[in-house]
Amino acid sequence: MLKKRMLFFIIFCVFTTAYSIDSITYETSKIINTWVWEKSIGGLNNPYIATPRTAGFKKKIVFTNQGKVITYKNDIEIRISTYEIKKGNCVSDNIENDLITFEGKTYIIEKLDNQNLILLSNNEEGSRTIYKK
Fold this sequence. Notes:
This protein is α+β, with helices and mostly antiparallel strands. The protein is built from 2 helices and 9 strands.
C-alpha cells in the first residue's frame, strides 16, 4: 500500500510540474512580439493616467524568443535587457501568478492575449501599464 501511495505521489508531482512548465512556455511564446505603450495607470498612493500624448513620447517594447526585451522611445532604441517569466506570488495578495522580470522590475502578467498586454507592478503601489500590438 505504501508503494502505491508513493507511486501516486511521484506521478502527481511529475504531471503538476509538467503542467506548470507548459503554462510558462505558453506565456513566453505569447509575449514574443512588439508591444506599443497605450497608457499607464497609477496605483493606490499615486493615482494618475499617463499616455503618449500626456507624457510627450511614444514607447514600445519588443520581446524576442532569445529572452531579450528591446525598449524604444520615440522609435529610437534606448535599452536592451533580458527578461524572465516564471510563476510567483503577488506582493499585494500573495496569490500565485505569472510574473515577468525585466529592466530591474517584476510585473504580474495581468492580461496577455493576441492584442493586449497588461502588466501590474508587483509592489505595494500596483500601477498598471497597458500595451497593444
